[in-house]
What does this fold into?
Amino acid sequence: MKTDFLQHTWKHRLTQLQPAAEQWTPQHILKWAFDSFGASVAISSAFGPEGMAVIDMAARLRGPSLRVFTLDTEFLFPETHSLMERIEQRYGIAIERVYPKLSPDEQEQQYGEALWSRDPDTCCNMRKVAPLRQKLSELSAWITGIRRDQTASRATAGKIGWDAKFGLVKINPIADWSSPQVWSYLHEHGVPYNALHEQGYPSIGCTHCTRSVGHGEDERAGRWAGFAKSECGLHVIQQAPSTSC
Ligand code: SF4
It folds into this structure.
């Protein structure tokens, strides 16, 4: 979202709309997003169960003009690439793949071997946060599949709000859903999902930083195991003071 005036106008509108939007269904939120932003809104997804539910709902409303992008770190699982192909076929869309500036080889030359094992924040910043910032600079709003009960930093996410970190509107249609609600939606509508979910991987990111979890472990325990890190830095809430969430 380019001008200060536009940003100010949207922050004001969001503040007024937020209380009502908290009562809206995910489909209502998505319809509002497409009516408000047209081709300037896109879903950001790594194709977890939540993202798949949101993509399915959005595709039913928007058809093949739906925009979906993903941060391809070049360290994704083959199962994730396979799911992406299934999504493109099922919904008739072309997923926009966003790549980091440095290839894996260039990263190794500049930062040494296996940066993710020594400094995952720097690795995530280069391979996820910086490419995301670049992509979001083209958009007026982005849609995510985050849920409030996933991590502490997501607990205050509104269904709609101003994303002060990236300077655009952020839309979280299923912020108040639980994991069982998401899975019910997927099964009820026959939505495809990552094959790794059936092999003990509830949350899937890069191959280097994702492991399967044991019975009773938190669903994100397999992400950056051994580090005090639960987020890539994409969804850290940094809302402007003028918004209510
Ligand atoms: S999840 Fe791991 S490999 Fe992927 S960008 Fe972050 S630190 Fe690097």
